[in-house]
Amino acid sequence: MKNVLVTGGLGFIGSHTCVELLELGFELTVIDNLSNTREEVKNQIEEISGKSVNFINLDLTDYKRLESFFSTNKIDAIVHFAASKAVGESVEKPLLYYENNLVSLLNLLKMCKEYDVNRFVFSSSCTVYGQPDTLPVTEAFPKQEAESPYGNTKQIGEEIIEDFCKSNLSFKAISLRYFNPTGAHESALIGELPLGIPSNLVPFITQTAAGIREQLSVFGGDYNTADGTCIRDYIHVVDLAKAHIAALEYSHKMEESYDFFNIGTGKGHSVLDVIKSFEKVSGLSLNYQIVDRRPGDIEKIYADTTKVSKVLDWKAQYDLDDMMRTAWEWQKKLMQR
Ligand code: UD1
Q1: Ligand 1 atom with the shortest distance to the CA of 147
Q2: What is the percentage of the chain residues whose pLDDT exceeds 90?
Q3: φ, ψ dihedrals at 324, nearest 5°
Q4: How many A from CA of 27 to the centre of ligand 1?
Q5: Could you give the CA distance from residue 215 to residue 207 in angstroms, rounded to a whole number?
Q6: Which of 14, 80, 183, 246 could join 326 in a cystine, given CB atoms 3.0 to 4.6 angstroms apart?
Q7: Is the pLDDT score of 1 beyond 70?
Q8: How far apart are CA 218 and CA 278, in angstroms?
Q9: For residues 12-50, b (16+ Cβ closer than 10 Å) or e, as one string?
């Protein structure tokens, strides 16, 4: 497996995965439409890895241009990140989300069939579980009705891939159900680049500490958890990136044509745990206030990682303090630019 196509490869998780792939000697082609990132991320990936990246600015919904790419490039495997991911925006613009996320996927799968690409790794999300009845959540838990069009595109995406696998037995696909990705590369050259006001917790924390936001609102202090705030399984983006390599390697050994894995640490942390960890590693005191619950938030979720550690031989190495430390280093570096 030589030439890996990384769609959305200049985004947050995509860029970290490119670095890991390059360090292992894979050749890369990145397709990104730059809708939620900047082209300079390509240079940062090249600076960290010392290797060059073949980058094409292309929208995967553009079937003609995609076909012209595949007709002139031999691709051995695809890691597919490119997707719109803002939950709130997806509620306001559902058709945009279905089009961006699902037409892209359909186009890529058509290319796989036409050009004989038989390895595929898909970015899915723990959102497919909704609020599970018991924790930790295993892959065997049933999927629940999606809370948002964004979440639905992940569920439908998984189903489309699974059906495609059933009719193409040489095609091997793996969905990775990410829990809450955060942190940044140790070099602080790549990290999360939220456009506008961040909706996710950690970028909001680092921007508040940096003085870009005045105060962090903690959404809900009356949940049925030890400190009253929601619990999530935060996972360092470099660990997450490495899970994609493990998935690609496994795709050569797997007997079934489709499989799916939880990618988390297996540990649940509350919002206040995250804030405390940030304050500890940064030495700063964060301006925050507990406010009303955010509609649509689930109370608690964290992963059972038995299957992924056994089958993919993958385990998270970074802890919460590492995530906060690297996210803060990245934020500080961003402000120097
Ligand atoms: C959401 C999506 C998930 C997606 C992920 C990353 C849902 C149900 N989940 O996860 O599918 O993969 O984003 O894009 O939509 N919080 C605050 N204050 C803030 C921001 C967040 O208190 O300003 C709290 C939230 O209430 C939550 C936790 O922090 O308890 C994490 O929130 P967030 O980072 O937005 O991720 P999720 O909602 O878990």
Answers
A1: 8
A2: 94
A3: -70, -40
A4: 34
A5: 9
A6: 183
A7: no
A8: 14
A9: bbbbbbbbbbbeeebebbbbbbeebbeeebbebbbebbe
